[in-house]
Amino acid sequence: GVLAPAEIHFSDSVIKTAIRVTGHYSGWVEPETMARLGLRSNAAEAWESQGGGKFTFKDPLGTGKRLTKRAVPSGQSIAKYVASKLLKKNPNAYFYRHTEPGVEQWTGDWTEEERNIFLSVASEFGCGDKWGLFSTYIPHRVGYQCSNYYRQYVIPSGWIIDENYRIDSAGGAIYVGSHKRG
């Protein structure tokens, strides 16, 4: 298996129409969602307005207390539990695993409309990280679904070219990381 950059794997016509990203999302929460939920206008304000604290993996809520499995409701993963507590403090973490409160999460195939929204948001703000924030633009989807869709369909289809990915001989997207120095 040789890993090829998009420019070698895809035809010139695909390369010409693809959206190019650096692997980073530069936006914040979708503005109407932010207003509806009373979220702050950036990550630093959100974190500090909700008590601040230092994030560690032992204290992911920044409360100064170690989180134990006993504190998590039975049958729920620690990650999903922690994320459920972070809507206003860390919206990226919350929306990575949860939809907006009261909004049903869809599963299954993505619609053409969802694909078009995805590509529009990527064109405006980039993509490749902060999938929770990215997903706020796509109703009924959460961040991990956006991340999976990106790796399994978007990059292999040539709709987006991300310099952090290569294409394997089967046409799959393989993350190779940033090759930029400095």
TrEMBL record:
Domain Myb-like: start-end pairs: 108-154
One Pfam family matching this protein: Myb_DNA-binding
SUPFAM superfamilies on file: Homeodomain-like
Superkingdom per UniProt: Eukaryota
InterPro entries per the UniProt record, alphabetical: Homeodomain-like_sf, SANT/Myb
Protein name in UniProt: Myb-like domain-containing protein
Organism (species): Coemansia reversa (strain ATCC 12441 / NRRL 1564)
Organism phylogeny: Eukaryota, Fungi, Fungi incertae sedis, Zoopagomycota, Kickxellomycotina
